[in-house]
Design brief:
Oligomer: single chain
CATH architecture of the largest domain: Up-down Bundle
Helix content: 40-55%
Shape: elongated
Radius of gyration: 32 Å
Number of domains: 2
Structural class: alpha+beta
Length: 865
Amino acid sequence: MKSGTIHSSSVALLALASCGAHAATQEGHEALLEWTALPEFPDPIGVAGPFAGAHDGALIVAGGANFPAPAWEHDKVWRAHVRVLARASPRASGAAEDLAWRDAAPLPHPLAYGAAVSTPRGVLCAGGSDGATTFADAFFLTWDSKLGTVARVDLPPLPRALAHSAAALLGDVVYVLGGQTGSELATATRDVFALDLAAEAPEWRSGAPFPGPERAFAVAVVQRDGYGERLYLMSGRRADDTGAVELLADVWELDPARATPWRRRADLPRCVMAGTAAPLGPSHIVVLGGADGSLMARAAELRDEHPGFPKDALLYHTITDTWTSAGATPVNQVTTWAVPFDGGIVVPTGEVRPRARTRAVWKVSAVPREHAFGAFNITVVLLYLLAMLGIGAWFSRSNRGSDDFFRGGQTIPWWAAGLSIFATTLSSITFMAIPAKAYATDWVYSLGAVSILAIAPIVILWFLPFYRRIDATSVYEYLELRFGISMRLFGSASFLLFQIGRMAIVLLLPAIALATITPIGVDACILVMGLFSIVYSTMGGIRAVIWTDVTQAVVLLGGALFCLVLIAIEMPEGAGLIDVGRAHDKFRVVNWTLDSTTTALWVVLFGNILSNLVTYTSDQAVVQRYMTTPTRKQAERAIWVNGFLALGATALFYSLGAALFAFYRSNPERLDPTFSTDAILPLFVSRELPVGIAGLVVAGIFAAAQSTVSTSMNSTATVLVTDGYRRFVDGRSERHYLRVARACTVALGLVGTAGALVLAHVGASSLLDEFMKLLGLTTGALGGLFVLGIFTRRAHTAGAGVGAAAGIATLWFVQSRTDLHFFLYSGVGVGVTVAVGYIASLVLPGPAQAPEGLCLAGLDRSRVS
């Protein structure tokens, strides 16, 4: 009996413990926002309706209105004060206590309830009222941190006087929306005024009225959805035909580039008129305050007993078009502004109940949610990585010379070579980015996969025979035979530098995503992926790289399929994946337009055909796989395997992205505002997958990075040894070249890993972006050289050099000076290189015919094995 009682008590305690842990977790999840008190506003009672914004590291608060105490016995008083919250010096720490208020020169006259927008040029202020007059004035308030002064810079006035308007900055354009032309709500408007700050002489432009009813006290905020920045106009109030106040909770989205610029979005859970809102994270909008109007009619009755406005923040997700709660707030300040400042969102002063102001100034920040990964998942990841090392150790016994190390002795089965080509072109960035793209937008990019199948016969018929005929270890050997050593060195040097930069990026970006969902830091993630890749690539050579590619491809595809099935099972009844996707246009595949700056159908297809043609004909990392099979026929099969796998994987990954959209639309509270949109798959994996499976999928993300990095290590070592060292240091033993190959693999791997670590700490990603763009200019020219050499007899070295230079220069001009879509860049590089190279070969002196067997006209296919 006693034993049974103890057992029952233990069960009860375990149950209570489980409930407590769940409650704590739920409570932690609800605490999405951290509220930090900043120095109080230096007015005895605070103000409502001020202009507020940030400029040059300072928060500027100007004007406003309040009721002297006792508030219900005095009329409203308008103010002209200008106050600035800033640090005493740029060297001060980032702590809140280092901020201090100071007075600046006042406004020319008292003013409140105008529109305010933070811009790089200053805080733009427009309209407002002094209680007797409504104004159309517009001006900048700018902060000079060196002098510690605020200056006023006048702008053209609004087309008409307005107060209680909403305002936001979309791109370079300031929008002022709605508002009242007089003191009565009946004068509310549907005005849309726009000021382009990028114009040489900015002037306000009157746009078409926004849809929906006229309004004042609305809220406007700019945030990104899956396609780009959008302006959101929400809530407010108006007077109906009887003069009664109508409270609004509708939401409208503006994209000026759309044929129909405005579209209706999901309504707010309640009215938030005169509220504050700001972007939060990459795709959320947080509404920190706003009046719901529930006690508006009783304000005079309740007076100081009024409880204030609802203390509950709201969260809107622009991609899934859903609202959820962001948790309780310490205060609800209305008729003020939410200003991005000092690493958070600052809400200065404002109204907390009718006639009552506050001196409080709050900084609001998003709180990252904890994502417990667990020891078991970590163990799964480690076991997987050790298995990859085992593959490297196993194949290290087979490497007796450089041919084994670089081409696997040409003994790789066709299906394994095909899987390896697929895994090589599918990096961890792609594994995360494709579902994220479909989740955030649609399937328009998916047509690019069709191009891989489309170019397969072109590669098989017109390129593969040349590589097999010359028995190439490096694809750039063909360029020397056709155009001379200079073109070979140009090709191999371009490839080498590009792949080193690519290694750094492929290691860094997944590490950042993985560090947010695992206890492994960014540096540790980089080191694990980089060093493990170095070890198994150095030991096993291309055999180890290919067979780990095979394993990694299976894990990645299996993990994606498991996620898709799990989402389908977890979806609530009546919310099918396909139905949700169709309702929100997630399966749109075609953009029917001829615009070359967009993802038009012809841009996606034509651009991807040419860019993939460049990759599959001139990229050593891919072409090297063609040379690992015993025969040309098996290489052809490998190319087809890759094509069909790419098509199937694209359908799988885009389906997974659409499924993630459906899942988070049904469960918006499970989103984490601090996560980037590109990390939506890691977020799902860490929070929704069962223990063990999550570890395996994370291992797959590690694996995808390792697959790309190990390929880069082996292919760059191949180029360095074959096109460099062996080309100029001939006559040594195969063992010698094998040792050099392994040393190069280690050295290049360490350089790529070190590059990722440097980028993680110095934040020089923008410099690397520019470096990679510069190197990317050569890829189209490289592809053009192969096309020029294979398809023309007359092209020669001088003409090819001129063509390559013209291709690089033209592509630089197109990238930097035009809006042409990036899908077409490869086509520009290839087309210009071929056209100019051929014409230059006709004009410049040189051989009239290509060497025998190196162009299509002279190819004897029967001699190609």
